[in-house]
Write a structure and sequence with these properties.
The complex is a heterodimer of chains A (420) and B (58). Chain A has a single domain, classed as Amidase signature (AS) enzymes (Alpha-Beta Complex), CATH 3.90.1300. In chain A, strand 4 and strand 5 form a beta hairpin. Chain A contains 14 helices and 17 strands. Helix content of chain A is 38%, strand content 19%. Chain A is globular and about 50 Å long. Chain B has 58 residues and is mostly helical. Helices cover 57% and strands 0% of the residues of chain B. Chain B is elongated. The N and C termini of chain B lie far apart (36 Å). Classes of the chains: A alpha+beta (420), B mainly alpha (58). At the A-B interface, helix 9, helix 10 and helix 11 of A face helix 1 and helix 2 of B.
Chain lengths: 420, 58
């Protein structure tokens, strides 16, 4: 009860500056907390990206259009699982419209601000999910990740995020974006809480308590993953790898083509999903993405089919890599968070669009559904950056073993700098 | 495949999308960006094992 009351007070005091929440469920949270809470998450307050069904609320998915939907008649199963483990839902969180974005600059609900510097974006599309944790309002949230939407905001806000293996956690009661690529997962303020929350939602091998690097073959990704990140970001990742004793390097083959395939599949499926509304009410969409959705809807079918086949081709190549390594470590984002409203960024002296390119390093991984934890590894220009801890399909346990070894270092690396 | 204004106008007509002049330019810009990525994907030479559907062998 005490932790929930503290969370509600923190939201009241801080969310005016951050804009992470789109609904605060005070009455529900107090009623749930008043009942005796038992389980591994007893009394832990949490919030969910507003594309999860919450009984009594329309599932906004960051849009204006979805306000017209009838309220959900029940909670998404993952919310029910967290509550069965003792956690208490306190609210819903801001996101890019229909999860198509990496910045949570939402024209309908306002931009979510980065708690480390309020002039900068929180990342997206699960921006509210990462910012709410970084601002100390709740320790645990749920997000979704199609191309990096858990890992990009986790990196930008300096929190922990898990994108599990494709298909590991149920998407029932979650508003879709790209059926071929959508994942859901938790974000948290510590590895321990991330593990307990994940265990409460999954049916596989328990990860809570898994520790130790003995016998693990670790390697740092070079090539594409260094060429598309600023040198200071690469340096933070190298330092983290050094602390783990990682000496080996590895090149993930054909990462650029994997990223291309993910981009095409996303555009085509996203465009098709929203085509009926794009025909009749385009003016009600987010101005930053409506033309991207339309372009996706008009794409030649040959591109989409080739992208799906290349995805399979790419998966087979990357899978072979895991015969010689167990875990691969790579930067999560090319740079730290850009300023709100900033259209372009510089990466390795190239000026590129900020919003579509924040996922340059995450898309090649989610394209083939590998499990990844995004760990905070330090700051660049006063803003956090993260590292991806990547394993073979269904080996989330290995990601957690490495994350645990990094945890003490990570806590120091990204201490918040803003006081409220 | 060349993605130009003519392609966008015809594809939008077939899909039932109304594009004003300004939106037409923006959609074209987005499609051309996707086309550049598609190029990288289209040049991959695939084999039968990369087929998506199930293989039927009599």
């Amino acid at each position: 009860m005490e932790a929930v009351a503290r969370a509600l007070a923190a939201i009241k005091a801080r969310d005016g500056a951050i804009n992470a929440f789109t609904a605060v469920l005070e009455r529900r949270a107090r009623a749930t907390a008043a009942r005796a809470r038992r389980g591994p998450l007893a009394g832990v307050p949490f919030a969910v990206k507003n594309l999860f069904d919450v009984k009594g609320l329309a599932t906004l998915a960051g849009s204006k259009i979805n306000r017209e939907l009838p309220p959900a008649t029940r909670d998404a199963p993952l919310i029910a699982r967290l509550e069965a483990a003792g956690a208490v839902l306190v609210g819903t969180l801001n996101m890019d419209e229909y999860a198509y974005g990496f910045s949570t600059e939402n024209s309908h609900y306002g931009a979510t601000r980065n708690p480390h510097n309020l002039e900068h974006v929180a990342g997206g599309s699960s921006g509210g999910s990462a910012a709410a944790i970084a601002a100390g309002m709740v320790p645990l949230t749920l997000g979704s990740d199609t191309n990096g939407s858990i890992r990009v905001p986790a990196s930008f806000c300096g929190v922990w995020g898990l994108k599990p293996t494709f298909g590991r956690l149920s998407r029932e009661g979650v508003f879709p974006f790209v059926n071929s690529l959508d994942h859901v997962g938790p974000l948290a303020d510590s590895v321990e809480l991330l593990a307990r929350a994940y265990d409460a939602m999954q049916d596989g091998k328990r990860v809570a308590g898994q520790r130790g690097l003995k016998g693990l073959r670790l390697a740092r990704a070079v090539g594409y993953f260094e060429d598309n990140a600023e040198p200071q970001v690469v340096e933070r990742v190298r330092e983290a790898c050094h602390s783990l004793g990682v000496r080996k390097t590895v090149e993930i083959p054909e990462a650029e083509r994997g990223r291309g395939a993910a981009f095409i599949i996303t555009a085509a499926e996203g465009g098709q999903l929203h085509l009926p509304n794009l025909r009749t009410r385009a003016g009600d969409f987010e101005p930053l993405t409506v033309e991207r959705l339309m372009a996706g809807a008009l794409m030649p079918a040959a591109w989409y089919l080739q992208a799906q086949r290349v995805r399979r081709w790419y998966y087979r190549r990357v899978k072979r890599l895991f015969e010689s390594v167990d875990v691969i470590l790579a930067p999560a984002t090319p740079r730290p968070a850009q300023r709100i409203g900033q259209d372009t960024i510089i990466v390795r002296n190239r000026e590129i669009l900020a919003r579509p390119n924040a996922g340059l390093l995450t898309q090649p991984i989610s394209c083939i559904g590998l499990p990844v934890i995004c760990a905070p590894v330090g700051k660049v220009d006063g803003l956090p950056v993260g590292m991806q801890i990547i394993a073979a399909p269904w080996r989330e346990d290995l990601c957690f073993r490495v994350a645990r070894a990094l945890a003490p270092r990570a806590a120091q690396a990204v201490a918040p700098t803003v006081s409220f | 495949m060349d993605i130009d204004e003519k392609y966008v106008i015809e594809a939008a007509r077939q899909a039932g999308l109304e594009l004003g002049q300004e939106r037409l330019r923006a959609v074209l810009g987005n499609l051309q960006r996707i086309a550049r990525l598609a190029q990288v994907v289209l040049e991959v030479e695939l084999k039968a094992e990369d087929e998506l559907g199930p293989e039927w062998k009599p």
